[in-house]
Amino acid sequence: MTISMYEASVPVFSARLKALSTVLATAEQNAVERKIDPQVFLTSRLAPDMYALTRQVQIATDHAKGAPSRLAGREVPKYEDNEASFADLEARIAKTVAHLATFSAADIDGSDDRMIELKLGGREMSMSGMQYLLHLAMPNFYFHLTTAYDILRHNGVPLGKATFLGAR
């Protein structure tokens, strides 16, 4: 059986981003309840050399919008990366989910052999669509998604696996 590149990407990105939205809403509510300035959470990081929560969300959405766009041969939408509040991050996620909704299986299925050319860290890369999705886009997406969750959990936000998975 052949993997559907669409099913392995768009619905996964969309579901995980919706769960991230719930994670962020929980964090914002927790900040209010605990009388913590939301900027404490938004600027928190797990280690001094890691990105803060806001940047983690930005990068996760970048992978979610970039992968299907590249696989479909479309231009990747550019975002300003100027989010400064939970509301801004929620809007970015909503914009990304709306972008994902513009793709159909016909746009992406069959892209497993399409050559994806991109620049990462000043280095040009070329790989098949399947390699790109499974070995670059998805791992990076999950890394930043999980790191955002971990930052909030580390700061005492009452989150669990069900929230991360979108079951709550």
TrEMBL record:
It comes from the Bacteria. Coiled coil: none annotated. It holds the Pfam family DUF1993. InterPro entries: DinB/YfiT-like, DUF1993. This is DUF1993 family protein. It comes from Mesorhizobium shangrilense.
